[in-house]
Amino acid sequence: MVKTMVVTDGDGRMLFCSxxxxxxxxxxxxxxxxxxxxxxxxxxxxxxxxxxxYQGLGARTGGRVVTPPHRKxxxxxxxxxxxxxxxxxxxxxxxxxxxxxxxxxxxxxRALARHLGRHEHTSDIVRAVAGLLxxxxxxx
Length: 140
Known about the structure:
- This protein has six helices and six strands; from the N terminus they run ββββααβαβααα.
- It is mostly helical.
- The strands form three sheets. Strands 1-4 form a two-stranded antiparallel sheet. The chain has a two-stranded antiparallel sheet with strand order 2-3. A two-stranded parallel sheet has the order 5-6.
């Protein structure tokens, strides 16, 4: 398994692609290892729409990382809570869909989908494809 962190803008254009990390690792742990928390605390006021794997980073980055709402009730949730949670989750997903499309473009490249070469070169291939994508996407 190979993990890389990709940051896109609101239109799905690639802004950052981290070096790959081999093995299984939680998204939030990978973000900490890359220094994302430190970068966001001292950097420009940017809002990052993240998936549920990054829950908890919002508090550490001054609200700059926005994740889907966390479920407060595991079992026997009131009906009003289920409806509210679903509305909030769908609103977050609808804002994040362009980010997912940008990441999907990266995953669709054959060199990444069927990489059979040496793992030491995976990071270079991912970053090369990300660079090509960031320059080839039309500016809207």
